[in-house]
Task: inverse folding
């Protein structure tokens, strides 16, 4: 990484990460930051580019469904330093498996919705009036039977 800016204000970090000032304080209280937030003159929080990078990781982990306690555990292991790489890898692999399962479920759901949109569009194009129905797709389409 290029030169680290050691003097970002909480407002600047909020702008760079898309998190609110309140969320940044919450993350600090919850112990999900990799390093303690430094304080400048007057007790104001002072962040670095490295802190911003870590917060981007936290935002991505949350967006992918990692619960806050798991992020805290990950941060705890990171804070322990070198020698904990296997533990970090295990935590990330577990999350990777959960994300892959989520994607599989979402892909299946998207298939069902796409099937229904297609069926309804076709019926409307044919001039259907009254209730529109949608038969279940052929098995193997990834959509459970009876979900029309």
Result:
């Amino acid at each position: 990484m290029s030169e680290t800016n050691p003097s970002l204000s909480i407002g600047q970090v909020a702008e760079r990460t898309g998190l609110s000032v309140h969320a940044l304080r919450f993350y600090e209280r919850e112990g999900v930051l990799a390093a303690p937030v430094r304080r400048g003159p007057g007790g104001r929080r002072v962040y670095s580019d490295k802190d911003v990078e870590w917060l981007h990781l936290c935002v991505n982990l949350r967006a992918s469904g990692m619960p806050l306690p798991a992020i805290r555990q990950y941060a705890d292991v990171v804070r322990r330093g070198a020698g904990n790489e296997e533990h970090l890898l295990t935590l990330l692999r577990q999350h990777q498996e959960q994300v892959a399962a989520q994607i599989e479920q979402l892909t299946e759901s998207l298939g069902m919705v796409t099937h229904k949109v297609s069926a309804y569009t076709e019926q409307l194009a044919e001039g259907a009036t009254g209730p529109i129905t949608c038969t279940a797709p052929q098995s193997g389409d990834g959509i459970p039977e009876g979900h029309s």
Remarks:
- Residues 61 and 67 are 8 Å apart (CA to CA).
- The chain is about 60% helix and 5% strand.
